[in-house]
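F.,

This is the one I mentioned.
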């Protein structure tokens, strides 16, 4: 029976249409099925898959297999890279990522397990092998020509996609609307079109945009409180990655279709305070969110060096940050998070902006309730935080405490009973956080802390929600104040993290430095305001006069009629490029340069004299990093030099050191040894450099170590400069160059 089946199968393989059928399976049927399996089902997405597939079909059908195979392999790698990167960081690959497809380590990781979607790669490989089999078996059979109508299919499908995008635009994630090759092609075509438009416009010098609405402090609204706030202390609670849609009051206020009640406890607390439904998160990444809320300034609206890191070179602007201002006015200032402080250099940034006490994982003595690579699980964290508040209560000084949770960060962890109650680990982690926060707030109430403390609960960033408009930019601010009866339950107007510092100073009727920007949450404004965000690769701008713009291709934007920023829906008005789009980009560029005019010629020192205990083995490149040199920016044509010194503290123990580099989360090969050794007598000293032929953004150094002892990283200096100019790394003394210790 089996022999008969094989005979019939090979007989079928020799038929004239076998090769055509196998190609159809590979480039048309498999991509559509995989899109459905990944949960990316949208009409535009299927249309894009069919358009690219039909193009491959007509181009490769009658080509020799050795010509078609490299094209199909590259196409398959793009599909795998798309699924993996979307799963890891929620974005499509960019042209800057394409060189990873020929990187040996990337290919090894992509074929050696540990993938988010291994079934996708296996399915594509099987379909490709099936196509190769038909090529081999029927190599002597003449292939029939395609009907002429098929040649028109790519044009028709691409045109239909373009028309749908322009006539009925939607705000689905890019990977739901595009196959990656189609998205790259569309971006290039749009860029060429815009360059042609600019060439036709001639060499017109753009007027600098008016920035006052984005950079100035606006305290012209009507005060919500008739007198300075009654609170004595300030407590800011930043919940990792929580979007505003998780608060019931916010969902109801904007009429959101999203009804999943993942945080019922926090929603009940929201009934007792002032909520701000239209609350904007300006960027992704914790350090950027903390900078915006604590320093009253937009962080980079791109993937450049975080301003918190840039501020380490500044010794005036940091004095305007909220912790420094409150400390100047008699508050004791404290920062506590559930993870190690070295990640994103918070061990240096937080003291620099005014925190008198900065603590991370090392402060906690209580045990975890579950294993979590980043540090304290949320229940253990809030139990420790409650003890910390109890210690603050014993002092005579008013205090300011900022808390940051980490439990709702990837990889999401929760106890088994939560994992059984929820569909996904992410939902379980959010539910676990909600219960832990409820116990903490109830504990504060029992201790009487809420009677004399201004509590602001918010999030550092948003981990987004599938199918919810602007979820990546939708934050929340729940204010619990002693005079809550005088405050509205719903705070009208558009606010964001950039407003938090000015708001707290305004609450206490303290002077607000002119270096800050934003409005006060404790004032009611008669007019709209300008506000911006950059999340999921889209630059968004509201002009304060009912027009919301979203730019997701180079200098090409869509605009909508929308009273506020966060809304369930908005009326599409059209597309534009040229001068209006360039003005939005110019506003973002101006905000990006509020601290440093250029990333060149600034020395960053990430070393210190702190003793760092080593682990027996390296478990995670991010959580185990010994330094905070993350997400740096290196301009095109520049040269970066790195100098480091690592010493083992224990004379009897050697430390084994690795140094890795990553760009947009992917490994970058710098030609460094795979492993090095540092001892007490012979510290590891390195001085190396590399060129940046293309711009580098989101570039991170990962200094990793393992062993039985501890180390000191006394020097980790990074400077990026123009090749051939004077090397300021050696000429500037350590205690004068970008001090950060």
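My design for it:
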């Amino acid at each position: 029976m089996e022999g008969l089946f094989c005979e019939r199968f090979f007989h079928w393989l020799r038929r004239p249409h076998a090769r055509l059928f196998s190609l159809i399976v590979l480039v048309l049927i498999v991509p559509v099925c995989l899109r459905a399996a990944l949960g990316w089902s949208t009409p535009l997405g299927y249309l894009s898959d069919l358009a690219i597939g039909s193009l491959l079909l007509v181009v490769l059908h009658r080509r020799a297999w050795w010509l078609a195979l490299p094209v199909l392999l590259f196409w398959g790698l793009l599909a795998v890279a798309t699924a993996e990167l979307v799963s890891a960081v929620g974005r499509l690959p960019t042209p800057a990522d394409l060189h990873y497809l020929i990187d040996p380590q990337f290919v090894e990781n992509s074929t050696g397990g540990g993938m988010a979607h291994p079934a996708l790669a296996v399915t594509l490989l099987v379909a490709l092998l099936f196509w190769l089999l038909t090529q081999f078996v029927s190599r002597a059979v003449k292939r029939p020509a395609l009907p002429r109508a098929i040649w028109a299919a790519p044009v028709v499908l691409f045109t239909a996609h373009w028309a749908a995008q322009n006539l009925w635009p939607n705000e689905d994630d890019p990977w739901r609307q595009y196959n990656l090759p189609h998205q790259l092609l569309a971006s290039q075509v749009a860029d060429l079109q815009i360059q042609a438009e600019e060439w036709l416009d001639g060499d017109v010098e753009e007027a600098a945009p008016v920035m006052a609405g984005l950079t100035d402090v606006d305290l012209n609204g009507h005060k919500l409180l008739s007198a300075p706030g009654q609170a004595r202390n300030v407590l800011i609670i930043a919940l990792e990655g929580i979007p505003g849609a998780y608060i019931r009051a916010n969902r109801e206020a904007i009429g959101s279709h999203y009804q999943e009640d993942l945080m019922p406890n926090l929603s009940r607390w929201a009934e007792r305070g002032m909520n701000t439904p239209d609350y904007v998160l300006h960027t992704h990444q914790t350090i950027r969110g903390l900078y915006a809320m604590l320093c009253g300034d937009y962080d980079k609206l791109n993937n450049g060096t975080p301003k918190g890191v840039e501020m380490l070179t500044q010794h005036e602007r940091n004095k305007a940050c909220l912790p420094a201002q409150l400390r100047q006015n008699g508050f004791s200032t404290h920062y506590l998070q559930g993870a190690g402080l070295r990640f994103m250099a918070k061990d240096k940034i937080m003291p620099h902006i005014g925190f008198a006490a900065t603590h991370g994982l090392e402060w906690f003595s209580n045990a975890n309730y579950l294993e979590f690579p980043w540090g304290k699980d949320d229940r253990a964290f809030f139990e420790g935080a409650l003890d910390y508040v109890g210690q603050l209560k014993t002092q005579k000084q008013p205090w300011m405490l900022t808390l940051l949770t980490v439990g709702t960060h990837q990889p999401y962890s929760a106890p088994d009973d939560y994992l059984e109650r929820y569909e996904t680990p992410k939902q379980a982690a959010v539910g676990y956080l909600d219960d832990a926060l409820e116990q903490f707030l109830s504990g504060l109430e029992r201790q009487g802390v809420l009677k004399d403390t201004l509590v602001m609960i918010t999030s550092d960033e948003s981990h987004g929600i599938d199918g919810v408009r602007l979820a990546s930019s939708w934050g929340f601010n729940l204010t619990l104040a002693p005079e809550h009866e005088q405050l509205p339950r719903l705070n009208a107007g558009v606010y964001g993290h950039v407003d938090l510092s000015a708001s707290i100073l305004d609450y206490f009727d303290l002077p607000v430095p002119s270096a800050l920007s934003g409005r006060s949450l404790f004032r009611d404004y008669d007019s709209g305001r300008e506000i911006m965000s950059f999340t999921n690769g889209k630059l968004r701008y509201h002009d304060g006069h009912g027009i919301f713009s979203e730019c997701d291709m180079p200098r090409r934007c869509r605009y909508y009629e929308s009273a506020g920023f966060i809304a369930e829906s908005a009326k599409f008005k059209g597309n534009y490029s040229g001068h209006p789009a360039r003005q939005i980009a110019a506003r973002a560029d101006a905000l990006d340069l509020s601290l440093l005019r250029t990333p060149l010629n600034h020395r960053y020192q990430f070393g210190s004299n702190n003793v760092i205990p080593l682990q027996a083995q390296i478990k995670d490149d991010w959580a185990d990093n010994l330094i905070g040199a993350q997400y740096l920016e290196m301009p095109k044509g520049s040269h970066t030099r790195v100098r480091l010194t690592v010493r083992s503290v224990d004379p009897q123990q050697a430390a084994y050191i690795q140094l890795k580099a990553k760009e947009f989360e992917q490994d970058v090969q710098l030609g460094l040894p795979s492993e090095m050794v540092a001892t007490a007598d012979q510290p590891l000293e390195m001085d190396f450099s590399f060129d940046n032929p293309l711009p580098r953004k989101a570039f991170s150094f990962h200094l990793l170590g393992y062993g039985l002892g501890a180390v000191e990283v006394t020097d980790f200096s990074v400077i990026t400069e123009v090749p051939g100019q004077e090397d300021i790394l050696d000429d500037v003394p350590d205690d004068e160059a970008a001090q950060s210790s």
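DSSP finds 23 helices and 29 strands in the chain.

Talk soon.
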